[in-house]
Amino acid sequence: MSNSEPRLNFIIVGASIAGLASAIALKRSRHNVLVLEKETILGGTSVPPGCARVPPNGSKILFDWGLRAQTKGSAYTSLAFAVYKSPDLDFMGLNTWDPELLSEARGDFCDIKHQDLLRILYEEATKPSTQENLVPHVAVLFGAEVVKVDCDNCSVTLLSGEIHTGDAIIGADGAYGPVRRMLIEAENVDPRSCDTPTGMTLYSAKIPRAAAIDHPQLALFYEYPKCTVEMGSNRGAFTASVGIENDIGLWVYTPDSTEDGCWTRVAGRKLVDILDAWDPQIKMLASLAGPATCVQIKDHHELESWVSRNGRVIVVGEAAHPFPPAALHTYSVALEDGAFIGKVFSHTRDRVRIPEFFNAFEEHRRPRCMQIREIEKRYIELITLPDGGRQKARDEAMRANHAAGRNVMEVPGSDLQQMVDATRMIFAYDPSDDADEWWMSWGRLRDSAKAATE
Ligand SMILES: Cc1cc2nc3c(=O)[nH]c(=O)nc-3n(C[C@H](O)[C@H](O)[C@H](O)COP(=O)(O)OP(=O)(O)OC[C@H]3O[C@@H](n4cnc5c(N)ncnc54)[C@H](O)[C@@H]3O)c2cc1C
Fold first, then answer.
1. Residues 6+ away with beta carbon under 8 Å from 42
2. Per-residue confidence band for 1, with pLDDT thresholds at 50, 70 and 90
3. Oxidoreductase: present as a keyword of the record (predicted)?
């Protein structure tokens, strides 16, 4: 690839995690990027402040991009989590993140405010360069709602009527955005009815630390390890310390599915109003919470392909593989998608090869994302297991581990152990290495073959 070849022009729909991560990574590979975001300001105007949990595979990407100080300066670094059985908040054990695992993964477990993570990514994506004429251009347009995606012309139309055309379009527009919708419709499937509610809803809210520390009975939520999991029957909850302020994030899985909300709207009911058979401490914590959001957990339609038929349009992040809301890996996987797509495109400026590179992205990223999503579903199942035989076996194994001084999840040969092993594999992954592996094994050879025929 020669530096004199013109850069590719990418249009990215959505300035959230996957969109901004893709913008940073493509800029690093010296392509031009236009990001279109429907909200008028970064993160939207009506969102109750939420928490992004970024495991080591995600934070490693931020660190590699030179954003260690910004990330660590805004995040709480989680070292462990404590597990309780509801409704009595019976302590079952502790899981400490193995330092060897973290060092292998080259990252930390960072809990950071969603808005702070967006800000860090946005500032990096749009950072002016000292070598203005040498660097690619990244622009982010707010209030730019995409209403139509035209694959054939590689263009998008905004609500304002404005049309933007590029060499390729990346849909980072979430589970209900226009690019994902266009791909669903291309399969002759109705996007309004293709997702199936599981009957479970996730409510989340934030409790100011200052309000919680007045209540000694809430100490388990604000003292070490500042991260808890409450396993109930057909319900569950978890808490984490949010950002440097150490406010408390509270997430509750409930079978109450009367409302289908979203991240950008305050839920109709307060968190405390949906807690019935819950521990008094959780109820007290919830009574101190600010506005809540609620998102139904759904089995989302599985796209036949993440890439349009003509190969010029692709979806990434939640638009490609929607995860359950507040899933442990949803942020890191969105960052991985961005890092992979940027890295793989460091190897070409050839417009003709875009479909091949987009298909390489799907070929490599899809199996990993599907595997992680299955693990996420198993986490929720594990936390909300109905009282009965399986729940008793789970609790006995956890308690025995704790009594033996082991991590609560480590039961050799068990499902729990499989999840721990899978987590190790998930944390160790590096999207840049994965992208380079495709390039070395396939992409580079096609490059040489093409050069030989020219
Ligand atoms: C405002 C907001 C707040 C969130 N807060 C939390 C939280 O506190 N905790 C948590 O666990 N998860 C939260 N999420 C979800 C979280 O961001 C995702 O689960 C994931 O980590 C990142 O997904 P993503 O970047 O692929 O898509 P998303 O984060 O879903 O972002 C999609 C982006 O596309 C934009 N978009 C959609 N349609 C259009 C259109 N027609 N034209 C232009 N732009 C469009 C959206 O406005 C949004 O910025 C939030 C999402 C949003 C949008």
1. 15, 115, 118, 119, 122, 142
2. low
3. yes
Atom 52 of ligand 1, nearest CA residue: 263
* Confidence band of 2 (pLDDT split at 50, 70, 90): low
Positive or negative, the CA dihedral 77, 82, 85, 91 is: negative
- Altogether, the residues listed in the chain come to a count of 454
Ligand 1: distance of its center to the CA of 176 in Å? 10
Instruction: Pick the residue whose CA is nearest to atom 22 on ligand 1.
Output: 17
CA distance 286 to 184: 38
Give the residue, by CA position, lying nearest to ligand 1 atom 8. Answer: 50
In sign, the C-alpha dihedral spanning 168, 7, 37, 248 is positive
| Residues 382/394, Cβ–Cβ less than 8 Å | yes
> Which atom of ligand 1 has the smallest separation from the CA of 323?
19
Give the distance (Å) from ligand 1 centre to CA of residue 323: 12
Out of 173, 206, 331, 332, mutate this one to test ligand 1's pocket (max ligand atoms within 8 Å of CB): namely 173
Is the pTM value of this prediction over 0.85?
yes
Q: Which residues line ligand 1 (CB under 6 A)?
A: 13-19, 36-39, 43-44, 47, 50-52, 114, 145-146, 172-174, 177-178, 263-264, 317-319, 326, 330-331, 334
C-alpha closest to that of 250 among 295, 292, 198:
292
Q: From the alpha carbon of 47, which atom of ligand 1 is closest?
A: 1
Q: With pLDDT > 90 as the criterion, what percentage of the chain qualifies?
A: 81
| Segment 408-451, tens digit of pLDDT | 888 777 777 787 788 888 999 999 999 999 999 999 887 666 66
Q: Give distance in angstroms: CA of 187 to centre of ligand 1.
A: 24
* Residue 78 neighbours by CB distance under 10 Å: 19
Q: Cis bond leading into 225, ω under 30°?
A: yes
Nearest to 326 by CA among 251, 266, 226: 251
Give the number of other Cβ atoms within 10 Å of residue 163's Cβ: 12
> How far is residue 203's CA from residue 249's CA, in Å, rounded to a whole number?
11
> What separation, in Å, do the N-terminal and C-terminal C-alpha atoms of the chain show?
14
Do the Cβ atoms of 237 and 289 come closer than 8 Å? no
Ligand 1, residue 21: give the atom nearest the CA: 25
Distance 273 CA to ligand 1 centre (A): 26
